[in-house]
Every structure is written in C-alpha cells, then in structure tokens.
Design a protein that fits this description.
heterodimer; A: alpha+beta; Sulfite Oxidase, Chain A, domain 2; five-stranded mixed beta sheet; five-stranded antiparallel beta sheet; 5 helices; about 25% helix; globular; B: alpha+beta; Heat Shock Protein 90; 2 domains; two-stranded antiparallel sheet; 10 helices; 7 strands; rod-shaped
C-alpha cells in the first residue's frame, strides 16, 4: 500500500533536484509570514544568524507523504510535508541535537540521529487539510510510527512536536 | 518384590504434566505482563488538560495586556493555542476518555465558550473593552471547568496506574508461583531420575551377582564332576594297581618263597635223616638257619601286607610334631646294633631338634629301610653317613653309602613296586622296601630322591616339611 506512494515520492524528489540545486547556494529572504526559524549550528542563514522560512520557501523542499497513526487521533492519517533531514541539509545543520520549540513554548530536544535513522516528516498537511495554529499547525513533526515498532514508545511520542516554529541546532 | 508397572509411570507422568503446565502458565502470564507493558501509555491526559489550562490563562493575560496597550501581547496567537488544545481535547481518544469520566457535557460547554471567545476575538481591539470583557468572562468559568477535569483525570490516571501495577504484580506473583511449581516438579523429576538410576544400578548389581552365583554354581558342579571323575579314575587306578599287585605278589611268592621254602625243606630233611648223628651245636646252627628262613618269609609277608594296605589307602598317618634328629639317631643306633657294625655315623652327631609333622612309627620305618639298604648294599668296611639338614620349609635326612651303587638305567624305576636292580638280584630282597618308603614319605607330604653311581655309592635324600614354629614340644 505504501510502496507506490514511496515510488511517487522518489519521482517527485528526482524532478525537484534542479530546483534544489538552484537554491543550494544561498537562502532566499522570506517574503510571506515566517513559519519556521532555524538557528544554532547552521551554515546558511538569511536573517541575522538564523534561517527563516515562509510557506513558499518550505514548498521548495521535496514533498513527502507519510501514512501513519498517531497517539492523539483515530485511524491512519495521511501527512504531507518535507523531510526534516532535507531541511537540515539545506541549512547545513551540523549538531547532535535539535531543540524543537512550539508556539506554546513546548521545548523538546531531539537527537539529530533520529532524522538520519528515520524518515521524520515535518508535516504541514493532514488528510489533505493544511494544518493551522488553531489545530496542530502550521508544522508538526511526525515520525513513521507504523513502519518502525520501536517508535511506538512514549519516549518517541513526546518528540512529535506540533505548532513547531523554531529549531535550534546544538 | 517387583513394583507393579503402572504406578511406576504415573508419578513421572504427573510430574512432567505439572512441569509443563506450570511452565506454560508462567510463560503465558509473563507474556501477558510483557505485552501489557509494551502497550504505550498513551493516556497523557493530565498534561493535555494542564496545557489547556495554561493556554486559557495565557489568553486571559494576553487579552488583559492587549487592552492595557502592551504591543507584544498577541491575543490572537494565544487564542490559536487555546483553540488547538481544545481541538485536541475534542478529538478521538481524548474525547472518549473525557466522556468515559462523564465530562461530555462539560466538553460541549467548553466548545460553546470557545466559540463565544472566537466571535469576540474578531472585534478585539484595545479600544473595545467590551470584547475583552466578554472574552475574560467566558474564560473565567473555563479555568474552573478545566481544573475539575484535571482533578478527575489525575485521580483516573493514578487509579489506572495502580490497577495496572496491581495486574502486573498479580501476574508476576502467579508467574513466581508457577516458577516455584516448576522448581518443585523439576526437583521431583530429578529425584525420580536419581531413584531410577539407583534402581537400575541395583538391578545391574543384582544381575551381576546372580550371574556370578550362577557361574560359581556351575564351576562348583563342574569341579564336583571333576572330583567324581578323578575319584573314579583314582579308584580305577587303585583297582588296576591292586590287580597288578596281586599278579606281582603271586609272581613274588612263586619266586621268593620257593628259595626259603627249599632251604627249610632241605634243612628239615637233613635233620630228619642225620639229626641223630649231628652234634648239638650243629643242630642248633641248622635250627637257627631254618628260623632265619622263616623270619625272612615273615618279613616278606609283612612287607607285602604293608604295600597292600598302602594300595588300599588303609595306612593313615597320625601326625604329630616329632624330632627328626632324635628318630635318626635312634634308627642309626638300632641299625648299628642289628648289623653289629660301627660304621654308621650321624652328622651332626648332636643335631638340634628338627621338628617335622609325621607319624613317628612310619618315619622310623622309612629311615630304617634307607639305612638297612645302605648296610646291605655296601661292603662292611665302608662308611655310611646319615646327614641332617634343613632349609626354611623342609627338613632333610641324607643316607649315603660307598657301596655297589645303582646302574643308571635302573634309577628311573627304582621306586617301582617289586623292582629290583640288576646288580642285586642275587641278594635277598623283594623290591618293596623303597616303594613303601616313598609311599610313606609322600603320605607325609615329603619325598625321597636318589642319586647314585654304579660302583661308587648311593645317596638317598628324605625331605619332610618342617612343623610350624609354635608346634615345637
């Protein structure tokens, strides 16, 4: 069931490679409302020593789809967004942990290892609906929980930071 | 003796069944606990509720500060956050949880208030105190309601945790009990195994000893048969010997008796015819010669009888501890007197006692035979030596003469009954003396050996086992 989706993703990723290369060298300055700020040990910045992203910029990252259940919703949900690893690569993040900060000041330190071990998604869409701040948006860190039994653990559940708006690479 | 077979299998069977049952039960219980522990504690409701409470308080504060004109106050963001917390509460698992605790109506009420706040948010400006008042009015009971929910959720979570721990503990206690059961049934099995091994070993031992017994019995039977066969063979030999004896005896009588009988007959005839004309002395001489012939015949009969008795196994030695030295001395003295000669010497002349187990009379007979033979078959001017000696086990008595000796070809047959060496055929004798002497020596578990050279002399050696030290008189 998931295989065809992954194939689609690979194709879309392949098509986006030229676009990625175009933006590889420098970070554009966000024009719309800033959704995500990345600070700390990063190579590329656009505002002071931080990297700020608006919707349009984040949409440049290769789109991914992930079907998984969550501990706070019923059934299997379809999430769309980009891989955390792609974002971190884009900003040239080099560190051991990423401190994820939510709008309600919820702060969780996530080992960078997670993003290389698993395809951790930064979702902006759930079941075809854009996530908003009034729900769990605009960005929600989603782990491929159903694919990896070891992720079905409370010690991973708290890393599902929603209303994500800041990443501090340490 | 043997245990009935069925019960022998019942106990091990039950032990194995118990072992398997306990093991299975313990595994199931532990698997259940493990499974239950694997299930994620997804009931994080207390945190969710408190976050909603915090969000409501922060919205209240933001609205207040917004009205006071603080530019950084962002009531819209705070509303969004409160809204997101409320959405979370209204979603699947969270909603069901609260409904189970009986907060369905409260939840509906909270959403109505949230909508009220949302409506007021649209008109919220620092210059519109009515909107901020409406929001704060709606928020005030919200905080209370959320607090009650938090309270109930806390109790519920702790109860659930307690129940869960109870269940785990019960499962563990049962598993431990099962492990004890496993231990007991395992020990029982081990005990049964050991008993079984022991029984097997005992059975093997019994079997082995039974086999040994059988072998022993068989060998006993065999030896009994052998004994019987030997006895049979012996008695057959004896019978043969006896019949041989009688044949020899008959031949001996016909040969040996004839001479003395002829001597007696002719002597008597001469006395009858010319007795009147003989002097008294002459007659005396002839009577004496006749008596000697009779005496010779008497000895002949006695010897033949002794030989016959030996053949019939009728001579029993009544053994006691006797001093070979004193017997030898006595025999030498007697023979010296009988032969009227002083040429017999005992060496050493005063030997310490040499105790042997023997029948004194029979031993005297043996030695007398050997010494008289030496006297008979050696010239009167040659010495005869009787030499006593002993080693650790045996005493020996050697009788040596410097007489005519025995031809080498006759030595092997010397002790045969009625055998007489070629060079003594003319001498009086019947060929029984040495045969009897060796018989008697062997009756005492001793022996007689001979060494001789014709014309030089003969050496007879009698050996007898020494008596035990304690048996000395």
């Amino acid at each position: 069931m998931k295989k065809p989706c992954l194939t689609c993703l690979c194709l879309s990723t392949a098509m986006l490679i030229p676009a990625m290369q175009a933006i590889a060298d420098r970070l554009p300055v966000p024009e719309g409302k800033v959704l995500l700020r990345v600070s700390g040990e990063i190579d590329r910045t656009n505002v002071d020593d931080q990297a700020h992203f608006d919707h349009a910029m984040l949409d440049h990252l290769p789109r991914q789809t992930l079907h998984t259940s969550t501990v706070v919703t019923d059934g299997i949900n379809r999430f769309e967004g980009f891989l955390m690893s792609d974002l971190l690569e884009w900003v040239g993040a080099e560190g051991d942990t990423a401190a994820a900060l939510a709008l309600n000041d919820y702060l969780i330190e996530i080992p960078m290892q997670d993003f290389s071990d698993y395809d951790v998604l930064v979702a902006d869409t759930m079941d075809g609906q854009r996530l908003t701040a009034r729900d769990k948006g605009p960005l929600w860190i989603v782990y491929p929980r159903d694919e990896h039994p070891e992720l079905q653990d409370i010690r991973y559940d708290y890393r599902w930071v929603w209303q994500l708006h800041h990443l501090e690479i340490q | 003796m043997m245990q009935p077979r069925r019960p022998a299998f019942v106990l091990p069977g039950l032990a194995i069944l118990a072992f398997a049952t306990f093991l299975g039960f313990a595994l199931v219980r532990m698997a259940q606990v493990e499974q239950d522990m694997r299930i994620n504690v997804d009931e994080n409701m207390l945190w969710v509720i408190t976050q909603a409470q915090v969000a409501s308080h922060r919205l209240d504060s933001a609205v207040h500060r917004h009205r006071l004109g603080y530019p950084e106050a962002d009531p819209q963001l705070r509303y969004d956050i409160l809204s997101s917390r409320m959405v979370l509460l209204g979603e699947g698992p969270q909603r069901r949880y609260l409904e189970r605790l009986g907060f369905a109506e409260t939840l509906e009420d909270l959403f109505i208030r949230l909508h009220t706040i949302e409506a007021s948010m649209e008109t919220l400006t620092p210059l519109n105190p009515a909107a901020s008042e409406a929001i704060q009015e709606a928020l005030a009971p919200m905080a209370g309601q959320l607090n009650r929910i938090a309270n109930a959720v806390m109790v519920e979570e702790w109860e659930a945790l307690g129940a869960r721990l109870d269940a785990h503990r019960d499962g563990m206690v049962q598993a431990i009990a099962s492990v004890l059961g496993i231990l007991v049934s395992g020990l029982l099995l081990v005990a049964l195994l050991i008993i079984n091994l022991r029984q097997r070993r005992t059975a093997q031992h019994e079997l082995a000893s039974h086999r040994d017994q059988l072998e022993e019995e068989i060998s006993r039977h065999i030896s009994r048969y052998k004994e019987t066969a030997d006895a049979l063979a012996r008695s057959l030999d004896r019978e043969r010997g006896v019949s041989e004896f009688y044949r020899s005896f008959a031949a001996m009588i016909s040969h040996q008796f004839r001479t003395p009988l002829a001597v007696i007959d002719s002597g008597l005839q001469r006395l009858l015819r010319r007795g009147d004309r003989m002097t008294l002395e002459d007659r005396q001489q002839r009577y004496t010669r006749l008596r000697n012939a009779v005496a010779h015949m008497t000895r002949l009969v006695e010897s033949a009888l002794t030989a016959a008795q030996l053949d019939g196994g009728q001579v029993a030695a009544t053994t006691t501890s006797c001093d070979l030295a004193s017997i030898a001395q006595q025999v030498c003295q007697f023979q010296t007197e009988a032969a009227g000669t002083r040429r017999i010497t005992l060496d050493p002349a005063d030997s310490p006692p040499l105790n042997v187990v023997c029948d004194r009379a029979l031993l005297e007979q043996i030695l007398a035979n050997l010494v008289s033979n030496a006297v008979k078959y050696s010239p009167p001017d040659t010495p005869i030596t009787v030499r006593l000696d002993h080693d650790n086990e045996n005493a020996s008595c050697q009788v040596q003469d410097r007489g005519i000796g025995i031809p080498e070809e006759d030595l092997p047959r010397l002790f045969e009954r009625f055998f007489r060496s070629h060079n003594v055929e003319q001498a009086p004798g019947i060929g029984l003396g040495l045969n009897i002497a060796r018989h008697l020596a062997r009756l005492h578990r001793g022996d007689i050996r001979v060494a001789s050279r014709e014309g030089e002399g003969t050496l007879f050696t009698l050996t007898l086992p020494l008596a035990a030290q304690g048996a000395e008189p």
